[in-house]
Design goal:
heterodimer; A: about 25% helix; B: about 400 residues; mainly alpha; Arc Repressor Mutant, subunit A; Serine Threonine Protein Phosphatase 5, Tetratricopeptide repeat; elongated
Amino acid sequence: MQYMLLIYEDEAIFGDNKDNPALQEIVGKHMAFAQSLGDTLKGGAGLKPTAMATTVRTSGGAQTIHDGPFAETKEQLGGYYLVDVPNLDAAMEIARKIPLAKDGSIEIRPLLGADDGAA
Amino acid sequence: MTAPLSKAVREAGARIVAALAARYRDLDLAEEAFAEACARAAEKWEKEPPERPDAWLYRAAERCALDLLRKRRVRERLAPEPPEPEPNAEEVMMDDASLIPDERLRLIFVCCHPAVAPESRAALTLRLICGLSTAEIARSFLLAEPTLAQRLVRAKRKIAEAGVPFEIPGPQLWAERLDAVLSTLEVAYSKAHEDAAAAGPHAGYAGEMLDLTRTLAELLPDEPEVLALAAIVRFAEARRPARMGQRGEMIPLSEQDPTLWNRRLIDEGNTYLRRVAASDAYGSRAFQAAIHGAWCARRSLEEPAPWPRVLALYDALLTRRDDPIVRINRAVALAEVEGAEAALEEIEALDAAALAAFLPYHAVRADLLKRTGRPVEARAAYDVALALEPGPAEAAWLRERRDA
């Protein structure tokens, strides 16, 4: 089964500057972690901060463009991994090991598959 | 339903559903196939009841499961209809051995997976492992049946679609998973235990709980918390015949006639308790089991109640698990050993606002207020307890105390 592991952290830790040591450090950890996943890793990326986000919102047939993320939250989506593993326990095991700078959450979401009419 | 059929469903139904679910990794398929097999049995057994009803049901349910799988494939047009499979080695062996594999443990771990909402775990376990109907579970959880049914559907869907494995988790996950299983069984058993008269829908599954905790203890013989729970359930069930008086009122533990207790269950409980004591790393359930064991060692009402020992065990339990429930129970023992004043002091130190809806808090407080010469406050506390809608036996007991 394929699972998306969505990483939520307080992006303020990493600041705006690309040279921020906290950012450098976590990127290094992610590279090593991604390497350790081998064949189970199907994809993944880090995201630029929500200050760089633009949202296209459709409501009642009308579309509006907003500066900023879909929702203001304490922890923001900062990146994801896409993995192919036998079951949820295996996905949870990977999620537990995803590097975090401090506090954070990993949301595990199974991908729609052929069985779900998405053949 | 014919008598042999309802007997087979009661005795083997849960095991058959568990075996099918483990085999096909699909809870809905297992339940549907078993229901279909029962329908076929209702038709056929009228004329010709089988020699081994449980094996007949299992084989029929297996065939129904394969049929359902085939139909599902055709409906989804994913593949042409596969031919009827040849019986595999296991099935051939089944013909003479009539063995239904016991997959209930595996299924318990599925029902209690952390990805399943905590409030659904006990309901799902009662449905799939104990074979209770949705209506019965809804009654014991004081929920409307459609609400409970919806909760079960959602939980089963989550298990199927999130990819919860149908496996017993590896040892590295046990600490976390086993505790979830034991807590779920505790919730399930407490529902059975509340029914003092054993007349309600849970009476039957108190027996299932004895069975299930024994199975768990056989499969995990080195886990002290598992052994402790098996002991607790036995001690508590042993006292069932003495828990209610002639007028349908609850009889508190210290006033129960020990000669009415079930000695066989107490012996079984003690056997588990000795194994717990022999292990070197035990948790809070070990102390709870020891407290039950201390009570069940009493032989008659003439023998003094074991309050000092019970108090010492609550003190020990408190070092492992410090919560209001333990503190309230400890206060009851403290009242007998050091007096009601000391106990009331402990109770008044608890967070009253957080315990506003917790019936034992008000019941114990009312008793202690009464014993320390505060009748007006005591009466008010009894009224608060009664307003929280206890079961009929406990309500009768509280009213008697209040008006005495």
